[in-house]
Each structure stands twice: as C-alpha cells, then as structure tokens.
Amino acid sequence: MDMEARGHSEHPQALRLWLRMLTLTQLVEKQVRTELRAQFETTLPRFDLMAQLERNPDGLKMNELSRRMMVTGGNVTGITDQLVNEGLVERVEVAGDRRAYRVRLTPRGRSLFGDMARQHENWIVAAFDGLSSSEVDALHRLLGKVKAHYKDTALETT
Question: How far is CA 45 from the centre of its chain?
C-alpha cells in the first residue's frame, strides 16, 4: 500500500495532496535507486555524496559532508571509504590541521559522476513526461508558493 492509499475522501484535501506528493517522491526515488544500481552499480547515498563533491571541486571536510547530506559522520565515512577504494574520491590533508582532511572527486570520479548526473536528469525529466511544459511550470510555481508560505510561517513560530 502506498502513502496515498491512507487518505480517505473525508480527510482534508491538503492532507490527501501531501500523501500524493509523498507517494510520488517514493516512486521516483525507488526508480532512481533501481536505475543507479542497474546502470552504474552504485547507490543513491553514494550518488548524493559525489554530487556534493561535484559542487565543491576543492572538496569538503567530513563534517561538512555529513551536515549537507543530513546523515551521521559514520555513514559518510563508510561511503567515503568505499569510494576511495574504487579510486572515485580522495582524501587530501588540510594545511594547518593534521587531524582534518578534505574529500574530493578524482578525475575518474568526476567523469563517472558526470555520466550518472546526465542519466539522473533524464530519469527525473521522464518522471514528469505525463505533464505538459505549462503544467510542469504551474506545478513548480504552486509548490513554490507553498514553500514560501511554510518558510514565512516557520519564521513566525521561532
């Protein structure tokens, strides 16, 4: 049973919309995970870590990676160790701090990530093939309004 099936007609429409968005997110993520494994023999967390490094060519410290990925340092260390062993990322010492190091993509890792990122984009675009361009624009705009309202409301309560 997917998340949306939990909603009933007597529930508020906003709740049913939320469940539909959760269901869609889960369906698309499952497809992305399946495709990453089939085409690249990798996982979504590994892709996410490499994406963070691709955006930061000089690399990131482990605690920065952990914070940006919203996972524990242990998770980041395990993924990093795997990617180092495969020659996709490297650890570089931080000048002036003998305990710290930065993690960055190797040229091989950058090339592989480029291939994965292009495919990832294609999978996400395909997920919305059932909508016209104007429908995608409208949905993006409407969800942006929800996001802005939420941010405004969250600021008022803090």
Answer: 8
Instruction: Write out the CATH class of domain 42-127.
Output: mainly alpha
In sequence order, which ranges of the chain are alpha helices (DSSP H)? 13-40, 44-55, 62-69, 73-85, 107-127, 133-157
Q: How many helices (H) and strands (E) does the chain have?
A: 6, 3
Q: Which of 74, 39, 68, 75 is nearest to 53 (CA)?
A: 68
- Alpha-carbon distance of 54 to 83, in angstroms, equals 14
The ranges assigned to domains in the chain are: 1-41, 42-127, 132-158
Tell me how far apart the terminal alpha carbons of the chain are, to the nearest angstrom. 36
Q: What is the CB-side half-sphere exposure of residue 95 using CA atoms within 13 A? A: 0
pTM above 0.90, yes or no: no
Q: Cα 30 to chain center, whole Å? A: 12
Neighbours of 65 (CB within 10 A): 24
32-68 per-position pLDDT tens digit: 999 999 999 999 999 999 999 999 999 999 999 999 9
